[in-house]
Design a protein that fits this description.
The chain is an alpha/beta fold and about 130 residues long. The chain has a single domain, classed as 5'-nuclease (Rossmann fold), CATH 3.40.50.1010. Helix content is about 45%, strand content about 15%. It is built from 7 helices and 5 strands, in the order βααβαααβααββ. A 5-stranded parallel β-sheet has the order 3-2-1-4-5, with helices on both faces. Helix 6 crosses helix 7. The longest helix has 12 residues. The radius of gyration is 14 Å and the shape is globular.
Length: about 130
């Protein structure tokens, strides 16, 4: 298999950082594959910060305080949110209300990336999902 660009869903990024056993072996292998380029969206940074502030991610205190440095420490690439991403995220004609997921799906499609996730709701979007 050749090089692929992978966008991590927020939970996959956190599971990777915390070496969580919920991270599927196939996704772990794809992240570990040095031929692949791994991205973390600014939308995930926003999601982590928001959920931590709301008390939904108390275990992620060290990450939530400086998500950007954790992206760098992991050797991943940050992915900014562009107006084009935002337009598609808002325009999707998909019955999915989570704004973070809508943005990740838009970025995955526009940037031609596989979205690494175990969230079955993301299958509503016309994107390629890495869920092994």
């Amino acid at each position: 298999m050749g090089k692929i660009n992978i966008l991590l869903d927020t939970h996959i990024f956190l599971w990777w950082l915390f070496d969580d056993n919920r991270l599927p072996k196939g996704i772990r292998g794809s992240i570990e594959n040095v031929d692949n380029q791994i991205f973390v969206s600014a939308a995930s940074v926003w999601e982590i910060s928001t959920k931590f502030r709301l008390g939904k991610l108390p275990e992620a205190v060290s990450v939530a305080q400086d998500v950007t440095s954790w992206i760098e420490k992991a050797g991943f690439q940050p992915l900014s949110v562009s107006p084009v991403h935002a337009q598609l995220g808002g325009d999707w004609k998909v019955a999915h209300r989570d704004p973070f997921d809508r943005m990740l799906a838009a970025q995955a499609q526009i940037e031609k990336m596989q979205l690494a996730s175990v969230d079955k709701m993301l299958q509503l979007f016309p994107i390629e999902i890495l869920d092994c």
